[in-house]
Design a protein that fits this description.
The structure is a homodimer of 225-residue chains.
Chain A: H1 3-8, H2 15-28, E1 36-37, H3 39-46, H4 50-59, E2 70-71, H5 72-82, E3 89-94, H6 98-104, E4 114-121, E5 130-131, E6 134-138, H7 142-149, E7 153-156, H8 160-172, E8 177-180, E9 193-196, H9 199-218
Helix pairs in contact in A: 2-5, 3-4, 7-8
The structure holds a DNA duplex (24 and 24 nucleotides).
Chain lengths: 225, 225
DNA sequence: TAGATTGTTAATCGATTAACAATC
DNA sequence: TAGATTGTTAATCGATTAACAATC
């Protein structure tokens, strides 16, 4: 990695790396903080190639010691800083249905850089109530509040049909990132970060592999036609 | 693609392809079934490279007509067959907490090849009740019922601490695939399909990009040090 | 026929894996 | 010192993108 990139932090990090780093973090938290750990160890523990672990870890900018590895404490902190977990970003959740409620109850998001500060719902019966300790506000307040409070993250847990509309309100409120749980492709300005959590797409991967497995069972691949 | 592979269906399909096919399917469902559609059109609509769409579509085994494209109806069916959405697989959901309840309420999974037939929970107060029309059964019945009913899919929505234990019960019951929502790496025999839906890992990607974006705002990349 | 699109092969790009010198 | 591990460069692998002939 070029050192200029390292210093500015302006590097495009591969998605797979971004998804593995939290895994390392989770494993490291089980270890004594003052201990040293090697990429070999992490890889062995998680069933990953040690070289891959090293590459991933390199992105955090940490410098290790040959033969020794990294101090668990330092590596944990490096990952946290790199993933932006050290400074908490506030989030609004829109759609206090059952999925929304589940997320509001997650609780541990605060350890991962995000704090859900309020929920919004179109159902006026829900407005004013609390879900897992979070107040449900009226949709009418979303844009204005997001703008005034500078809330950077919007979480969409509304039905697909109204997701685009909600996304537009979030953009209007100046939100920087959208975590979208509705099964639709959102159309937003390209400087807005969108992360789709489309369970139907995820299920598809599982479903296809299962179907292939069943197929193989009936008709093993080594059998000629 | 070699034709032998095409006929047997024993091809390793790239994950990205598997995640895009449902997107095409969703778009196609909005179109008149008797109409024709080209990969160019699909790509333009979803903001994807048309060649990539063609490659993905090729995996389903469908044959198109130059200049015309594919009949929407045929392509929809080809995707459904390929992803295994045409024959419904049964699933047990374990952990009737708020996330479990949200999934039980999803409803549309049946259109995507999976039918949740029952839920299980360790809390005896929940046993016997219904969540979104699904009966909650006792954990003690899980292994035996999975085995006798040949339920191939297990959904884990229990706390991280007990997820491994639940996974082992699912394996013991002969389950083929596990959709894991608990934030832990499961240790199961390698012939069991595992799909992790780790929200903390997902959040990490969003969080890191947001942190980088904030950083760029403060200190634009074209500024020399 | 002309032009658009499929099907297929080749080139590019990026991520993973391998190799190896530097180092503690 | 010997051996393990880092840091770094090269090779491999797989997915994306480009090119182009076949075809309707």
């Amino acid at each position: 990695m070029a050192s200029a990139e390292k210093r500015t932090g302006n590097v495009v990090v591969p998605e797979p790396t971004l998804r593995r780093l939290p895994l390392y973090h989770r494993f490291l938290k089980l270890l004594p903080m003052e201990q040293a750990v090697s990429c070999t160890r992490i890889g062995a523990e998680l069933g990953l190639d040690p070289t891959q672990v090293r590459k991933d870890v390199e992105f955090t900018g940490i410098v290790g010691r040959p033969k020794v590895g990294y101090l668990v404490f330092d590596l944990v902190k490096a990952i946290e800083r790199f993933l932006g977990w050290d400074n908490l970003s506030e989030a609004f959740l829109v759609g206090a249905g059952s999925l929304g409620a589940a997320l509001l109850g997650y609780g541990k998001f605060e350890a991962y850089g995000m704090k859900i500060v309020a929920a919004f719902d179109a159902d006026e019966h829900k407005v004013g109530t609390q879900v897992h300790g979070k107040l449900v506000l009226s949709m009418g307040e979303l844009v204005d509040l997001a703008e005034r409070m500078h809330v950077p993250i919007g979480i969409i847990t509304v039905p697909a049909a109204v997701a685009q509309e909600v996304a537009e309100m979030m953009v209007a409120g100046g939100m920087q990132a959208i975590w979208n749980f509705a099964p639709v492709q959102l159309n937003v300005p390209k400087d807005v970060i969108v992360r789709n959590e489309d369970l139907y797409c995820s299920l598809a991967a599982l479903s296809q592999k299962l179907a292939q497995k069943e197929l193989r069972k009936e008709r093993p691949s080594y059998v000629a036609e």
